[in-house]
Structures are given as C-alpha cells and as structure tokens.
Sequence to fold (299 residues):
Amino acid sequence: MQLRPTILCALGGVALLSACSSVDNSGTAAMYGGNPLTYSSSVSSAISGTEPATAFGKALKAEYIAYAQREADEWYDFFDADFFAKKAGKVVEDENILPEDPANWRFSAEEVAQKRAVRDELIALLDDGKREEKPDTAAVAQARFDCWIEESEEGWQDDLISQCWKDFEAAMAELRAVEPAPMAAPVAAKEARLFTIFFDFDSVAITPVSERVLDAAAEQWASSMGNVAIVGHADASGSAAYNLKLSERRAQAALDQLTGRGIKADQIDSDAVGEGDLLIPTPDGVREPRNRRVTISVD
Fold:
C-alpha cells in the first residue's frame, strides 16, 4: 500500500489496511495518494474524463483503471484502488507519467535500491521510444511494475506478486527485443532470439502469459525456420534430484506446446539443468519465481 499516516497502523480491525511497516518513508509519497472514502468518485472521474491523445496514454489509463477496480472488487483494498484510480486520471495531464518510485513505498534501503534498478531499465526503454513503438506492451510493463511494487510492499499475496512480476517480465522481454532492420544486401546470420516462460511453484502448468510468449516464439520460428533450443530450470527449493526431474517436465511441457504450434520436433533440442543455472542466485532451499523457468532460443 502507498504511504499512509502512522496512526493508521493502530486502527485494529480495519481490513483495508493490511500491511503496516516500521520503515518510515513519510513525506515522499506521490501527491495523488489514495483515500478509501474517495475511491468511487476517483474511478468514475477517471473513466469519464478526457481521453489521452496518444496510444500509450490511452492504454496506460485503461491499465490503471482496471487495476484500481480489481483492487477494490477482488481484494477490498479501497486505499490503493483510489490511489491507482487517481493515477489513471493523472495520465491525461502527463501521458509520460512514470512508474512508481520504490522510495515512496515502505521498503528498506536495500529493497529500494534493488527495485529502482528494475525501474531504471523500464524507464530507459520507455524513453527510448517504446511508448510510441509498442504502446500497449509499454503500458502493460508500467502497470505490472506498479502492481509488483504495491503488492510487494503489502507482502502477503505471494501468487499475485509472482504473477505481476511474470507479466512485467514478459512485457519487458518484448520491449527489449530488437526488430531487425531491413537490409538490401545479404547479411550475416541473425542472432538467436531468446524467449522465457515462468512457472508457479512446483508446477509445470503453462500460464496465460506464457501462452503469449510461446506464440511469439512460434511466430519467430515460422519467419526463420531455424533450430530451437529448450532448457528447463527450477529454483533452489527442494532437492537437486527432484528439481532436475521438475525442470525436465517443464522442458517437455514447453516442447509439447511448441510442436503443437507447428514447430517441427526434429528442429528442437531439449535439455534440463534443474537448479544448476539460477537466473537469480539464492541460497539452497529458497523459492524464487524468476528461477522457475524455461528458456527458448530460436535461431
């Protein structure tokens, strides 16, 4: 939740306020801070207000409105629902409104530094023209980053925190992708494109976000007809032997999905490394959503 007066932490039984923290970042919150009593008018004003002029602005406003409504309707968090409803309304005034600064939320100094590094990369991509080139994807990336920040501060909905991060990473992968420039003369072989899908804890189920990443990988293969390499991974929770088997099953799930999308099986190499190649280094036994993945390289 966005920064709130310390006295709110003492109000017992108020379901709207689920996570009070000893970290004091008072005085740094954004000016459009939320108020549970004004959510209804804030979201109504955002919906009925002037539409932004750009495709990115329209998409970002819609993302924030949808998130505000979900905060209220599903989790009864009217404080943050109002906050993001007001942020949706601010998009009209500033269509380049920035993703949330972690310093405005209740995180430790170390957490602020880590999350700001992620935010800096996002802002760099947005400022590099991705708002104009890929407005819908750029809006998803910013909204899911803010979702990740808000839910991480509350710290109790682990599945939602993980989903926000996975959606953010999928959008970032698309924003990072470099579109090949048209060339009149023959050029050297293109560098392989890398796609990553993520899994829930101890699961091999393909999520809706991963479905879209797999679609993109299949489209890339259709345009190149090159070789495909799949590598399954697991996080460090559980035994090494179990994680190896789990990563093999994840690789097989990705292979089945890709062949189902038309990629020839004899052009796919599949491997699994268990917890042997962690994207995010962690001690043994630690659950880390970003390590539960399959990478797909398309030549």
About this structure: The two ends are 43 Å apart (CA to CA). Residues 6-19+26-176 form one domain. The chain has two domains: 6-19+26-176, 193-298. Confidence is low (pLDDT under 50) at residues 2-28.
